[in-house]
Please model this.
Amino acid sequence: MADLFSEAARERQAENAPLAVRLRPSALDELVGQQHVLGPGSALRLAIEEDRPPSTILFGPPGTGKTTIARIVAEGTGAVFEELSAVSARVDDVRAVIARARDRLGGNGARTILFIDEIHRFNKSQQDSVLHAVEDGLVTLIGATTENPYFEVNSALLSRCTVIELTALSEDELVQILARGASELDASASPEVLELIAKRAGGDARAALQILELAQATAEAEGVPLSEKVVLDASRKRPLLYDRKGDQHYNFASAFIKSMRGGDPDATVYYLAAMLEAGEDPRFIARRMVILASEDVGNADPNALVVAVAAAQALEHVGLPEAQLNLSQAAIYLARAPKSNASAVAIWEARSDVREHGNARPPAMLRSTGHKGAAKARGHGEGYLYPHDEPAGFGVSYLPEELRGRRYYRPSGAGEEQADGGEDR
Model:
């Protein structure tokens, strides 16, 4: 009786499953996208088709096929498929899978594939618990993660796996998937509606199908056609592909900095908006602007540092959302300011010389005369010209003798940073 109820529950669960689950491909030929790693003749595809999949970490944005690929491997392989979610699994669960894998291999030679979803959520001890089983070939590991595994997965485990990066699906690829979804729902969807859903989904197939399913249910309930208006209502906010500790954090921060450095105010304010919308720490953004004000603008516009520091202080005083105005003003100012990295290059080169050659002693004329026995007896201060009394003191080189002629600060000539002719002192 229990088996009958279980079977009925499975059937009803399949009927009521989300559209994304019902449409999940069961073969590589049905998979849309990721042709850069799973196209005909690719190494990974051949390995899967020949039933010799390597231990693999699949990483990429949500809805790009990580779980689907793992299940395709499960369908097409002769190995037993075991699945764990890193959100709920414990070390004991991993050990139990490994014990069963050992029994299978010893009993009838059957191999085991262990799929761990959200593997980045495994802590070090949990990752270590599966390490030796992967190393010894007891299990073939397939891990799925939205986070860059080079940040989140132990290097020892990572070195034993092939890392495959999946990319967000294109709008054309999403339209293909949505057409299948519309057919499954028996929905009449125009190409324009499917294209709008694809735009709203942000490269996420799961999100695209969720929007389609909700929009179709709404249209049926209201007795209206599936239209762009219904789609917009079903997708009020586009999903944002952003992680505050991984790739997207670094990618957007890099784009923001390079846009300011390159003098593009429109790109600058766009990447600023993208980071703020995704919940990036605004203090991080403000710090980067203060740094850039000296590193990339410098004395070409000394006021840039004043503006950047003022924005950082305004952020602390006002807070978000109002401080977005201060951050935007400062970011645009920095993007439009004349650029010079002469100040930055000066300190980098000077510190390099100190590290390489040591801290060369200042010339005797510059040494302190303020302590006993220093002045005449040791030659300190001898030959020093006080520039305010003797203007010739402005033309003297104050570098250590062995560094005379060395130039660290070379004015760019941009903005207020006027070139001084470059003569040696």
